[in-house]
Structures are given as C-alpha cells and as structure tokens.
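Hi Q.,

Before the meeting this afternoon, I wanted you to have the 9D3 prediction in hand. No need to reply - just skim if you have a minute. The sequence and ligand are here:
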Amino acid sequence: MRVDVLTLFPEMFPPVLGASIVKRAIAKGLVRVEVHDLRDWSRDKHKKVDDRPYGGGPGMVMRPDPFFDAADDLRKQEVGKPHVVLLSPSGKRLTQPEVERLAKKPWLILLCGHYEGVDDRVRAGLADEEISIGDYVLTCGELPAMVLVDSVVRLLPGAVGDERSPKEESFRDNLLEYPQFTRPVEIRGMRVPEILRSGDHVRIGKWRRLNALRRTFSQRPDLNDESSNSSD
Ligand code: 9D3
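Predicted structure with the ligand bound:
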C-alpha cells in the first residue's frame, strides 16, 4: 500500500509514524507513507495557502489549488488511481468496517484540513470521500489522518505479530474484550479471579464470555443493539 498525506504540518507525522507497529510495517515494506507540505504547492510568494472567505465572515479558508496541484503531481508518480480521502468533521464516521474497506485500497491520498475550513471544491472535485473520526471538534485533520493510517496499517497482512488475525479481535461479536490479568496475583487488595488460575478451560471460557457481555452491557449497550449495527 502507498499512502500520501497532504498537510500544513508535516512535522507532526514522523513522531507517530516512526513508532511501534506502523514503523515496523514501513520497514517491512508493507506500506510506504509520504508526507507532503501543502505549502510546496502554493503559488504565492509568501507560501500562503489560505484566504478570506467569499461572502464574508471571520477566519480564513484553505485554498483549493494547492490540494488539486499536489494531487495532480502525485498521480503522475504512480500508475493506477489513488483513493482520495478528506479528513473532515462533516465526514462519515470511521468505524472498523470502514477501516477494513480502506485497508484494501492500494493507494490512499489523505487531505488534512484546518479549523478554519477547506474550500468546498476540494470535497466536491478532489475527494472520493470525507471521513470523520468521531463527534468532537479537533483543531485540524492531522491527528485523524494518523488515526486512519494506524488503524489501516495494522490490518495489512504481516503488520501485526499475527498470533491470530487482527480482524478477529474486539469487534467480532460486537462485544468488548474480556478483562485480562497478569502477575501479581494481588495488588492493592484486588485479586485475580480464582477461575483464571484454575486451569479449567471450559469454565475459563464461560467466565470470559460472561464478563465480555457484562462489560459490553454496562459500557457500550449500543454495540450489542441489533438496530444500531451494520455488521449483520
Ligand atoms: C465546527 C465548525 N468548524 C469551524 C469553523 C468547522 C471545523 C473545521 C475543521 C471544525 C474543526 C476542524 C478541524 N477538524 C478536522 O479537520 C477533523 C476532525 C474533527 O475535528 N473531529 C473528528 N474528525 C475529524 S477529521 C478532520
């Protein structure tokens, strides 16, 4: 997979992409991530990439031309068609099924906007889709782009240590994971449940299932709600 990121803050990415599983996936050649400074495509002598909004109002708006020109240049670098994603608070919510869909794309271009907003022609004429990572307001699309890269990269074959397929985790039965414990057996008065130390794998399996259900019911009743899930 290839991922290109268009951003005003390229320096935000290396600390995250240079760590943990994403770093290893890059080193293994499973993914190539290129982060580009949008200012490189500014035609302005001061490298300006925003301007005042038509119709008036406070703040500035990111101009569309650096996005379009950058995408044009990137398209020349590779055969095939990139899938272009605009990170935006008005996008469709990123969920695990969406991550799985994106992980099948051979080439992603991620467009990061800013609090001020992006000229709407970027969404209309450049992006294939708009994605949000949740209903809260951030200052920019850079963190969401990194969230997307992290969630997608761990699904690439060979990226995760692969004891079992990462797809089989957590979201499988629309249940949260069961509680986990390791040593010590007791800390601050809290003991590891005796069943887990019994060696009785039938009882352990039942205990885990029961506690995954309990946890889901109290923390995330929406997860098990037939009317609100799209995995059926
Ligand atoms: C709330 C109205 N806006 C300010 C004038 C729009 C706005 C634009 C851009 C608000 C925040 C941002 C910056 N955020 C993102 O670019 C963003 C985001 C987010 O804020 N929350 C969840 N997912 C995403 S994906 C991109």
